[in-house]
Design brief:
- The complex is a heterodimer of chains A (154) and B (111).
- With 154 residues, chain A is an alpha+beta fold.
- Chain A has a single domain, classed as Histidine kinase-like ATPase, C-terminal domain (Heat Shock Protein 90), CATH 3.30.565.10.
- Chain A is built from four helices and six strands; from the N terminus they run ββαααββαββ.
- In chain A, a hairpin with an 8-residue loop joins β1 and β2.
- In chain A, α1 packs antiparallel against α3 and α3 runs antiparallel to α4.
- The longest helix of chain A has 22 residues.
- In chain A, 32% of the residues are buried.
- Chain B has a single domain, classed as 2-Layer Sandwich (Transcription Regulator spoIIAA).
- Chain B is 31% helix and 26% strand.
- Chain B is built from three helices and seven strands, in the order βββαββαβαβ.
- Chain B has a five-stranded mixed sheet with strand order 1-2-4-6-7.
- In chain B, β1 and β2 form a beta hairpin.
- The relative contact order of chain B is 0.20.
- Classes of the chains: A alpha+beta (154), B alpha/beta (111).
- At the A-B interface, α1, α3 and α4 of A face α2 and α3 of B.
Chain lengths: 154, 111
């Protein structure tokens, strides 16, 4: 499904919105189509790379946890405002435990046999994003954050 | 998950042929690597030069492969693209792996 785009000038901020089913293949395809929009093609390679890492972690988290034993959609809205990409992701799965985002502390790296094989996602999201905010309302999870972009919109 | 293995002397080079190692293929990647590394070569190098994107599930799978080879063998990586490098750096996993900027001499795949 192609994301809807609005790229008006002097009008609302340029944005893209996409709704995908909450499964890993749909996340992969969804990221592909989002990064093919005019909105994201306009970012530098460095900014695109950071955005794809953060969005992938946020979406994978929803698939693995919020929808761990149910099915539902994920709604992604991206908005480019001046030098920021504003991301809002909504799902109807389970709430975050205690309605709180994980702190994302990395486990210490010791012997090879004890290396962590997961738990990287929130650390990566928290490191690369700003104003990370989570809210549970009316049976929906809403996650929002902002990403710096090096070039102004348009 | 498309992986191409070639044995060169004491080194087994596995070329990841897909452009992503992500949550959709992490388990498959791990299983396939386990099969391919049955060959008892002292060194295993994963060529990631075609991989443009790695998420934390993909990273976890790469770590799992290294753990499966330990303690006798260590997984080495080569050809990390920018985004992949960034994920390793952010998670400090760049300090754990031997990372070759290019696939070591004599390992480059022809063509």
């Amino acid at each position: 499904m192609a994301p809807s785009q609005s790229l008006g000038s002097g009008q609302p901020d340029p944005s893209a919105r996409l709704t995908i089913p909450g499964d890993p293949m749909a996340v992969r395809a969804g990221l592909r189509s989002l990064f093919d929009t005019i909105l994201l093609r306009g970012l530098t390679a460095e900014d695109r790379s950071a955005a794809e890492i953060v969005l992938a972690e946020a979406l994978n988290n929803i698939v693995e946890h919020a929808y761990s034993n149910s099915h539902g959609d994920i709604d992604i809205t991206l908005q480019l405002r001046q030098t920021e990409l504003i991301c809002t992701i909504v799902d109807t799965g389970k709430p975050m435990p205690d309605n709180t985002l994980p702190n994302g502390h990395l486990s210490p790296l010791g012997a090879v046999k004890d290396l962590p094989e997961g738990g990287f996602g929130w650390h990566v999201i928290r490191t690369l994003s700003k104003d990370l905010h989570y809210q549970r309302q009316d049976g929906r999870n809403q996650l929002s954050f902002r990403l710096d972009t090096t070039q102004p919109a348009n | 998950m498309d992986l191409l293995a070639e044995q060169r002397g004491e080194i087994l080079v596995v070329h990841a042929m897909q452009d992503r190692i992500d949550a959709a293929c992490a388990v498959q990647f791990k299983d396939r690597m386990r099969e391919l590394t049955q060959l008892p070569t002292p060194r295993v190098v994963l060529d990631m030069s075609r991989v443009n994107f790695l998420d934390s599930s993909g990273l976890g799978a790469v770590v799992a492969v290294m753990k499966a080879l330990a303690p006798d063998r260590r997984l080495e990586l080569s050809g990390l693209t920018n985004t992949v490098q960034k994920v390793f750096r952010l998670t400090r996993m760049d300090s754990v792996f031997t990372i070759h900027s290019e696939t070591p001499d004599g390992l480059r795949q022809a063509g």
